[in-house]
Design a protein that fits this description.
This protein is an alpha+beta fold. It has one domain: HPr-like (Histidine-containing Protein, Chain: A), CATH 3.30.1340. About 35% of the residues lie in helices and about 25% in strands. It is built from three helices and four strands; from the N terminus they run E-H-E-E-H-E-H. It has a four-stranded antiparallel β-sheet. The longest helix is centred in the C-terminal third of the chain and has 14 residues. It is globular and about 30 Å long. The N and C termini lie far apart (about 30 Å). It is found in: Cytoplasm.
Length: about 90
């Protein structure tokens, strides 16, 4: 299991369209990927739970990845959260 703090630096945060792309990215990995914003937690493969985080630019998320491809999954998630542009 890997856990890292990642600050969303892309302009759009995780509103509807980027959240959809994010969950599609997460679904490509076998590992379980969880995002946390304070007390709120979300399964990264579920669009509804990701949207409930209310993650905008500047939000620091705790990303937890657990599974066989966790290193690759963490790298992809971090890249998306910090570089994705709408």
């Amino acid at each position: 299991m890997i856990q890292e703090h990642v600050t969303i630096t892309n302009e759009s945060g995780l509103h509807a369209r980027p959240a959809t792309l994010f969950t599609q990215l997460a679904a490509k990995f076998q590992s379980k990927i969880t995002l946390a914003n304070g007390a709120k937690q979300a399964d990264a493969k579920s669009i509804l739970t990701v949207l409930t985080l209310g993650a905008t630019k500047g939000t620091e998320l705790v990303v937890t990845v657990d599974g066989a491809d966790e290193a690759e999954a963490m790298a992809a998630v971090k890249e998306f959260l910090t570089t994705h542009k709408d």
